[in-house]
Amino acid sequence: MLGSFSRENLVVLFLADLMAIEFLLVIVFTPSLAHSDVFASIGHMTDLLFTERDLVTSLKDYIRAEENKLAQIKQWADKLDLLSTAATSDPDGFLGHPVNAFKLIRRLNTEWSELEHLVLTDTADAFLSNLTIQRQHFPSDEDQSGAAKALTRLLDTYQLDTDAISTGKILDSTHQRATGNRKYFEYQLAKQNKVAQSEQGGRDENHQPNDYRSERKKYEQLCRGEGLKMTARRQSQLFCRYYDNGRHPKYVIGPVKQEDEWDRPHIVRYHDILSNREMETVKELAKPRLRRATVHDPQTGQLTTAPYRVSKSAWLGAFEHPVVDRINQRIEDITGLDVSTAEDLQVANYGVGGQYEPHYDFGRKDEPDAFKELGTGNRIATWLLYMSEVQAGGATVFTDIGASVSPKKGSAVFWYNLHPSGDGDYRTRHAACPVLLGNKWVSNKWIHERGQEFRRRCDLQEDV
């Protein structure tokens, strides 16, 4: 039987080998839902790049092994081709030599069996084993669907052409459609300015948006930089300064750089708050713990994971690392607020098209038990620290007042969520715009009322 092997037989065996490998690949690549929501964090997606790189290396090793195997088979076939051609031209003369007769018997009895073993040797074992191990970290169908929705969200929010985003021309300022849209949006913006001013006093008690779609439209316009603009007179009252928080001992000699971002409500930015090393430490501490955020859907009120917030977050306590403890102390020293009753530092990493739709940080009147389990009162203030540069998108926008704050690595934005009276400041409704280009890392500190009694005294008057 082995004597009937030909070059055609070897090809058939090799194709059968490839079919077996293909079958195994189908099994290995069957989607798994064990690890989903990879798309919700760029930090986790970077791991996928190295996973894929490892698989490519493993695949190349397999290809080299197959090539070596085929090279040996070809070398053996070429040698036998020459020998059999000479032998069959004069069979009697060839077999008349006893050594030739012995070698023929040895080849058919031994060497062809060795060749059969070589052909049947599976060089894909190492590759498939590595693939099986890495498969547990692969994205799921949910990730693919989530990423596709994120691309659609980016197209809608930033008014992009599908061909532009597919070819990478996302920020082309000379784009014909973008240029044409600008005048239209400026015209619409002027109309909205007038409407907003006429409706300023006609809100309900909670300042709730009357129309979700209307707010969504305004949110997207702000993300594109087309939101309500501050008047020149108001803007002239915004300043940059060196700030020492009432001659705080730590900042008398080295004050921090403070910049007014908005006047009513007062939103300030502190520059160069953390070093690159400190920010990288926070990221490394948070990355293994990042989990998809669960929040309330603005329309249904139910807990949901998408699309209200596309990010992953982790919580870091002051006791876990000296850097976290220093950050908390720095926040207290700069703001003058007691952070001992604040929530742990929340670190968030936004995914493909990562966003956080309009929301309030504080508990409203219809949510009297929002933070009851904490026993520290309502969220009096928010400290938001940007820990990465974002090339495009990712701004923090305040939909009620038409403000937009751009991410700037190492800077922190601070505002009060409550009036001195303790009532919620509904002007602080804000959102995180989708990340168009870049990897957005932020950390935030929600500071609560307890402990602030002598640091921010109660006042029956609301802020202007």
UniProtKB/TrEMBL annotation:
UniProt domain Fe2OG dioxygenase: residue ranges: 341-449
GO cellular component: endoplasmic reticulum lumen
Ranges that cross the membrane: 12-34
Predominant location category: endoplasmic reticulum
Cellular localisation: Endoplasmic reticulum lumen
Cofactor(s) named in the record: L-ascorbate
Keyword presence, Glycoprotein: yes
Keyword Chaperone: no
Listed Basic and acidic residues bias regions: 201-217
Record keywords, A-Z: Dioxygenase, Endoplasmic reticulum, Glycoprotein, Iron, Membrane, Metal-binding, Oxidoreductase, TPR repeat, Transmembrane, Transmembrane helix, Vitamin C
Signal sequence annotation: none
Gene Ontology terms, MF aspect: iron ion binding; L-ascorbic acid binding; procollagen-proline 4-dioxygenase activity
Region (Disordered): 193-217
UniProt-listed Enzyme Commission number(s): 1.14.11.2
Known role: Catalyzes the post-translational formation of 4-hydroxyproline in -Xaa-Pro-Gly- sequences in collagens and other proteins.
Recorded family membership: Belongs to the P4HA family.
Protein name (record): procollagen-proline 4-dioxygenase
Organism, scientific name: Takifugu rubripes (Japanese pufferfish)
Lineage: Eukaryota, Metazoa, Chordata, Craniata, Vertebrata
Gene transcribed to yield this protein: LOC101071700
